[in-house]
Amino acid sequence: MPWRIVQIVLVVCSLLCVRSIEAQPRRVMGFGSYAGGGVTSETLSAQGVSGALLSSATLETTVIPAVHLPTFEMEFFLDHREEWDLDLSVPITDTLYVASRGLLVWQTDAFFDYNFGRGVARGFVGPGVGFSILSGSGVTGGTFQIPAEIGLEVLPQPHAVSFKLLGRPWFEMGGSDAFGIGGGFVALVGITGYVRK
Fold first, then answer.
1. Terminus-to-terminus CA distance in the chain, angstroms?
2. Total structural domains within the chain
């Protein structure tokens, strides 16, 4: 008899906890901005690609600082537990700056993230894919990018705004008059506001 009462109490408590979790609004999508800096490296071949390998032309490698001015970020949650999301990133401030100098540049990266942790501090990690195009001053070109991201999110109640610290390494290839391969790493800080339902 006492075990039956304990079982009933446990079932009722479980149902109340599930109902309170379901009643709490969940994040559906978010809009934010990140900024930071890091380093980028690129190796260029003046004669482009010969077959599947770089031609024997002179190769030039450069390593320079990478400054990420504020980006525009969109985040879409793909499940009700907020474990999986699609994050779209556009370096909008960089784009506007370059456009003011008479060039057309567009870059977009998409990340498929796994979010882990249920407390105020949570982690996320995911692979991505991206592209960029450049046109102006008689030059047209583009790149294909394979980025990734890993970071920490601080999400205080009521889960309407989060603060993020993250790193984004990437590999890229492409070019215009010269074929290049490169990559880099940037560390970013940012803020995201969420639409909840």
1. 43
2. 1
